[in-house]
Amino acid sequence: MAEKQIEIELKLRIDPKHVSRLRQAPVLREVKEGRRIQTTHLVSIYYDTPKLSLARKGLAIRVRKIGTQGWEQTVKATNGLREALPARHEWTVPLEDGALDLEKFTDKDVKKLLSKFGKKKTIDRIFESDLKRSAVDLTYRDAVMEMAIDQGVVRAGEAEVPLSEVEFELKDGHPAALFDLALELQRTVPLLLSMRSKASRGRDLYLGTETRFYKPDAVALTADMSAETAFRAVLAQGLRMILGNEICVRQDLHVEGCHQMRVGMRRLRVAFNLFKKNLPHGEAVLLRRLLKTCSKGLDALRDWDVFLGETLPLIEERFSQNAGVAELRKAAEIERQKALVAAHDMLDSPEYGQLLLILGAWASYSRWASGASASQMKAMAAPIGKMAEPLLERVYKRVTRRGDNITVLTTPQLHALRLDVKQMRYGTDFFGGVYGSKKVKKFRNGLVAMQDILGELQDAAVAEKRLMSLAPKLSKEGLVAIGLVSGWYAARVDHELDGLGMAWKEFAERKLFWS
């Protein structure tokens, strides 16, 4: 092995119970070309400063024992992130024993990095991974890659977490082959995209980091960035929102996690609608359908979370001794549990796994361009500043066409306006950085005010339907409680409608930041 190389790999999560099915997958028998899977015991010890200052600079230092073959030490440095397909510089040298010895490296680039970030700092053992790796080289289409199935634990002190994942490391060829093979394998065994390294898991264990919901920073776009680069950045943000909040839904940790995961999917649907004219059909259509399907799998859970966490407590505070209100809560909690099961079913569905992999591919390289016309390729190669204005203008015209008659809109028409306002809001979030103006903030604030009111109206309509589904299961006292809640919603709707006209007027007077 050369001391220096570039590592490009795709990580996938796999349930241990499915590993044997993966090994026997028909497509693997074809691409192994007679090679046998070799299993090795790997113990990897990761080093950093006590405050993890090297990790913050994108460096990872590891000493590894490879079965009976001996020891090696490796330094990895971030070489840019293609979201689901990280690329890293990697330097590896053999060791006589398991003692860290950074002087063993001879490459000037790694020596410069270590001198810059590690000089005069205490570098200690922080965490380790202990696993069995089953690996084999594959030849798939025009690419050569290694497939490794890793099963074991990551450990920091007394704390440890199980690990079960599959890695595809590209040795030669185009990264598309990694995703294509993963998608083909996904037809045989459930595989889920992962964007977490073993090192990030170990660092979280070391720090005792609690699992929280994930809310991303704004997309950092610039006017001279190509439309394709901007689009992929937007996709990457949505993908991070989905994966960053998945654990909250799986383990039922934070209700905000379900909300943010759903928002991530909805933002991606808006992104595909905004760029629709510049994307070829095919996978773009498939992705929109998958996003809609998976988002619906979270709808009921979010609706009951809002009702149980925001609406019902207000009723309970006023009618604390009402038996019907207590009965209503119990019935709603049962429905919420059913909704949680439905959300878990969605997360375990083939559609969700397919969505993650294709989104990862689109965010990592120009997969979108397959089948694109010359005009679409030209548009996506142009600066995003040139494309953003007509995209925003198109959505704004839809909003104003509906909003000019806001005082006479029916409930379905208000819902349609809400969807347009949401698209305008997300479009502003996506492209606001291109303009870098205070007008963006003012315009966005007006949109948020409109979206909040229209969202309250929609929540009330949805909640009424959810409550009516409970009616056949409730006693007379429970039905009375539904009446109390319905009355509260009616008063809330009247209040929001009173403020809707003024909110619209204030929004309509905002200056357009893109013109």
Summarize the structure.
It is built from 16 helices and nine strands. With 515 residues, the protein is an alpha+beta fold. The longest helix is centred in the middle third of the chain and has 36 residues, at 283-318.
Q: What general form does the structure show?
A: globular
**Low-pLDDT residue intervals, each spanning 5 or more residues:** none
Radius of gyration, in Å, reads 26 Å
Beginning-to-end CA distance, first to last residue:
56 Å
Secondary structure: number of strands? 9
InterPro entries: CHAD_dom (IPR007899), CHAD_dom_sf (IPR038186), CYTH-like_dom_sf (IPR033469), CYTH_domain (IPR023577), YgiF (IPR039013)
Organism: Thalassospira lohafexi
Domain CHAD: 224-505
Domain CYTH: 5-209
Describe this structure in words.
Helix content is 56%, strand content 19%. It is an alpha+beta fold and 515 residues long. The chain folds into two domains: 4-207, Hypothetical Protein Pfu-838710-001 (Beta Barrel); 227-509, CHAD domain (Alpha solenoid), CATH 1.40.20.10. An eight-stranded antiparallel beta barrel has the order 1-5-4-3-2-6-7-8. The longest helix is centred in the middle third of the chain and has 36 residues, at 283-318. The protein starts with a strand and ends in a 7-residue tail after the last helix. The model has no long low-confidence stretch (mean pLDDT 92). Residues 5-209 form the CYTH domain. Residues 224-505 form the CHAD domain. One of its GO terms (molecular function) is metal ion binding.
